[in-house]
Task: structure prediction
Amino acid sequence: MQIKNIEILVHPNCCQIYTPNLPLHDRQRDLLDIWNARVEAILKDKESILIYYSFLPNSCLDTLANKYSQILKDRFIPFNFMDTLNKSEFNELFKSRGITYSSIDTKIIVYGEIFEQCVFANGWQTQLGLNIPNSNIQYCKENSLTYQDSIIIDRWKRRLMIEQIYFNKPKI
Result:
């Protein structure tokens, strides 16, 4: 299968890891809808794949990864937290899945959490591993949780926890 588009989703829902029993903030729900829509678009475009960098040490424990794997099948490539591959390792992985690409013609779109940190780091590392030129990579802020978003969400979660603990308010 010849691909022309690689989308990279980095650490989705990682801001939820320490507070899994709290609800998602509106921005997190919006992003989840965006990411789900991107997966549906990738499914329709047979020249696209999704590289997924989980925030967990084992991506099979990641429920979103499992959902996207069921949808995209061989066009879903999961990585565990802190995994990095060099060019020969990427080539071997792609060959095992029957994926081919032209480093000159292939485009990369990167998004996820946190835009200013992990999104750039994982996007850059993948770009290097695949030998994709700088002109072919796009970092998509509107599909990402920014550092500022994470601060707002953190304050919101603290308020929820304080209300639950001290005022016995029910969970939202």
About this structure: The first strand starts at residue 2 and ends at 3. Residues 2-146 form a domain with the Rossmann fold fold (CATH 3.40.50).
